[in-house]
Amino acid sequence: MARVVEASAVARRCVADITAERAKCSFPQHEVTAVLDGGEDKTQQRRKIEELFLSDPEFLDAVRPEYLSHEDRYANELRKACHMIGKFNNDEEIQQLVGQMEGIRTLMGSGLGVALTKDGNPLALHFVMFLPAIMGQGTVEQQGEWMGRAWTGEIIGTYAQTELGHGTFLRGLETTATYDPASQEFVLHSPTITATKWWPGGLGKTASHAVVMAQLYTQGQCHGPHPFIVQLRHQDTHCSLPGESHAGEIGPRLGMNTNDNGFLRFTHHRIPRTHLLMKHSQVLEDGTYIKPHNNKLAYGTMVFVRVAICFDAYRQLQRAVTIATRYSAVRRQSELVPGQPEPQILEYQTQQYKLLPLIATVFGIHFSARSVWDTYNEVTGSMQEGNLDRLPELHALSCGLKALSSSDAAGGVETCRLACGGHGYLASSNLPRIYTTTTAAITYEGENTVLWLQVARYLIKSYREACKGHTLRQSVSYLTPQPASSSASPSNLSNHALVKAFRRAVSHLVAEAAARLQKGCDAGMIFEHAWNSCSVQLARCAQVHTRYFTCEKFLSGVERAEVSEATRGVLTRLCRLYLVFHITNNQGDFLRSGALSPQDMSALEGELAALLAALRPDAVPLVDAFDIHDRILDSTLGCWDGNVYHRMVEEAEKSPLNQKDVPDAYHKYLRPLMKANL
Ligand SMILES: CCC/C=C/C(=O)SCCNC(=O)CCNC(=O)[C@H](O)C(C)(C)COP(=O)([O-])OP(=O)([O-])OC[C@H]1O[C@@H](n2cnc3c(N)ncnc32)[C@H](O)[C@@H]1OP(=O)([O-])[O-]
Ligand SMILES: Cc1cc2nc3c(=O)[nH]c(=O)nc-3n(C[C@H](O)[C@H](O)[C@H](O)COP(=O)(O)OP(=O)(O)OC[C@H]3O[C@@H](n4cnc5c(N)ncnc54)[C@H](O)[C@@H]3O)c2cc1C
């Protein structure tokens, strides 16, 4: 009984601490929530959908997934994923709320969808890549043939591109699709072990179909990687199709273990000619190849997914920083002043330095991802009308923001874990799972270093064009060399002056890299070797350019937001923190280019400390404004009421090892050892 009384005193203290934080709020929280949701109506809609799904007992887990076997874990997540589709298909209210067609995809990828299927959704690839591939790469007839069945879940697909030997270098894929005009079929074949498809999500056991990327051969010529629809499993029995294709799961991974990532091999597997997705390029019955307007159009599905990943990174970081910030308001440790009560760890400036820039980063990713999404829609809209002019810009923007958001989010989640001390290492904090999910995005859909180099390629090309006097696209127009008179240090350090300083720092970095590249070529290196010898510097150009892009979008997003002065105030402080944090962390770039002076840096470092102090009272209110339901956070450390210690103990008690006082393993292994010498 004494223990219970003591425990509830602790609970009362924790709850009191977090409640006191909420009283400090300086802004109307619903406005920040609405900014992030895209309007108050969207907030209401999201909450309603969450309520409809979270109140459904089918989405509850009988035990923590970590305690299940590999197979049971997969089955449990598949059960929930299928129930999610069933619920969507059979409930008109949900369909209206989420939107008839796109809705189910949005739902699966939303914070809610990701939280319901905790360790990876076996149907994710179906919605995120298989359907978009058919939409983006199929003709109207092909869409008619496949889309309806795919939306309802009659067929389940994946996107099988990566092979054991090649992921990054698409032109190096080895799977072949050779056209046979006699039977009007393509013959799919994996000529070597390294041609085995490896990694596609859902390929192991879930998918009945796949979009397979293979080298297209016709009339004796190879035309590069193209997308083909391939049936993998029998429509009634779900058995593998005997002999000609062989699929399976690749085994346990760092995380996302219920995505049944798979392998696939073909042995002269025949598919009809019409299974080549022919929106951009065609093979006629006699084997004649019709070229696309641009041979990178076959890579379109990846462009879409790279943009989608930015939103995912945003949501994962939101969850992690909510957990770590709430916990930091409840956790008390050490003495700030000897003899005085232990402070909340959020009082330590170093803790604020870990968390507040991450709260700002959530907004930075939000505003820039929205902007890239708008660009994606504009560019794909004009591509429908045959105008491909802005495709290179979209490619560079989507590569840059995918790389920046995934690395910021993964680094940020790890910082949040560290900010929770030992308890952040517990599965029940949910930080390990959020981390393993987030860090995967650094690798998939284009490994980040490789994507940085794609951005650099665009920057150098643009810079060279600017030097020839050509006009550049808006996102890189600042690379145009400026007259010397415009390069004086800023007269003030306003937000706009700092964004301008970013522009100057990137321009300088790009000009230096271009000069070094040229020097290599002038010294007799072939361009590719010169490029490789500068690639560390080139990747850096891409990173700073993309950071500049996020700063610019953050600032314009805050300026344009239709909110009260109090909300604009807190968002402006966050934006300022984001700018100052990244500038003071990368001083070399700004000092070398003369964009800022050492005196400016001192002033900004002083301001950084002041910003942390100014934002400290709004830390918990800001993460509260992310409006993440406790079930979606799924964390003993991050729960709304702050009752952390009770939840931790409650979760620990559920461990299967705690169900028996003496485990069977004691009798089997430990006892013989302990009693060996008796
Ligand atoms: C939930 C998610 C689950 C995960 C799923 C997956 O991972 S699925 C698997 C995901 N896998 C991956 O993501 C694989 C990552 N790898 C790749 O995407 C490509 O192989 C590559 C881009 C690295 C190089 O490709 P390459 O060797 O063929 O090309 P290159 O370097 O010789 O450049 C030639 C020109 O093409 C341009 N261009 C390139 N891409 C695009 C595009 N999409 N659009 C428009 N343009 C593009 C480029 O800018 C350049 O233009 P320039 O300068 O000549 O005017
Ligand atoms: C969780 C997860 C899910 C996935 N899901 C899918 C899926 O559904 N479908 C699918 O097809 N694939 C999938 N993949 C595969 C993924 O797309 C590839 O792993 C990714 O594109 C990287 O390719 P890679 O593995 O060949 O790495 P590699 O290219 O071998 O990278 C290894 C190292 O080499 C470096 N490197 C390689 N090329 C260059 C270069 N040109 N310049 C400089 N450095 C270079 C990289 O930077 C990296 O450091 C998934 C992967 C993971 C981890």
From TrEMBL:
<keyword id="KW-0576">Peroxisome</keyword>
<dbReference type="GO" id="GO:0055088">
    <property type="term" value="P:lipid homeostasis"/>
</dbReference>
<dbReference type="InterPro" id="IPR055060">
    <property type="entry name" value="ACOX_C_alpha1"/>
</dbReference>
<keyword id="KW-0285">Flavoprotein</keyword>
<feature type="binding site">
    <location>
        <position position="162"/>
    </location>
    <ligand>
        <name>FAD</name>
    </ligand>
</feature>
<comment type="pathway">
    <text>Lipid metabolism; peroxisomal fatty acid beta-oxidation.</text>
</comment>
<protein>
    <recommendedName>
        <fullName>Acyl-coenzyme A oxidase</fullName>
    </recommendedName>
</protein>
<dbReference type="InterPro" id="IPR037069">
    <property type="entry name" value="AcylCoA_DH/ox_N_sf"/>
</dbReference>
<dbReference type="Pfam" id="PF22924">
    <property type="entry name" value="ACOX_C_alpha1"/>
</dbReference>
<dbReference type="GO" id="GO:0003997">
    <property type="term" value="F:acyl-CoA oxidase activity"/>
</dbReference>
<feature type="active site" description="Proton acceptor">
    <location>
        <position position="445"/>
    </location>
</feature>
<dbReference type="GO" id="GO:0005504">
    <property type="term" value="F:fatty acid binding"/>
</dbReference>
<dbReference type="GO" id="GO:0005777">
    <property type="term" value="C:peroxisome"/>
</dbReference>
<comment type="similarity">
    <text>Belongs to the acyl-CoA oxidase family.</text>
</comment>
<keyword id="KW-0443">Lipid metabolism</keyword>
<feature type="domain" description="Acyl-CoA oxidase C-terminal">
    <location>
        <begin position="497"/>
        <end position="675"/>
    </location>
</feature>
<dbReference type="GO" id="GO:0071949">
    <property type="term" value="F:FAD binding"/>
</dbReference>
<dbReference type="Pfam" id="PF14749">
    <property type="entry name" value="Acyl-CoA_ox_N"/>
</dbReference>
<dbReference type="InterPro" id="IPR009100">
    <property type="entry name" value="AcylCoA_DH/oxidase_NM_dom_sf"/>
</dbReference>
<feature type="domain" description="Acyl-coenzyme A oxidase N-terminal">
    <location>
        <begin position="30"/>
        <end position="156"/>
    </location>
</feature>
<dbReference type="InterPro" id="IPR029320">
    <property type="entry name" value="Acyl-CoA_ox_N"/>
</dbReference>
<keyword id="KW-0274">FAD</keyword>
<dbReference type="InterPro" id="IPR012258">
    <property type="entry name" value="Acyl-CoA_oxidase"/>
</dbReference>
<dbReference type="GO" id="GO:0033540">
    <property type="term" value="P:fatty acid beta-oxidation using acyl-CoA oxidase"/>
</dbReference>
<dbReference type="InterPro" id="IPR002655">
    <property type="entry name" value="Acyl-CoA_oxidase_C"/>
</dbReference>
<feature type="domain" description="Acyl-CoA oxidase C-alpha1">
    <location>
        <begin position="299"/>
        <end position="460"/>
    </location>
</feature>
<keyword id="KW-0276">Fatty acid metabolism</keyword>
<keyword id="KW-0560">Oxidoreductase</keyword>
<feature type="binding site">
    <location>
        <position position="201"/>
    </location>
    <ligand>
        <name>FAD</name>
    </ligand>
</feature>
<dbReference type="Pfam" id="PF01756">
    <property type="entry name" value="ACOX"/>
</dbReference>
<dbReference type="InterPro" id="IPR046373">
    <property type="entry name" value="Acyl-CoA_Oxase/DH_mid-dom_sf"/>
</dbReference>
<dbReference type="InterPro" id="IPR036250">
    <property type="entry name" value="AcylCo_DH-like_C"/>
</dbReference>
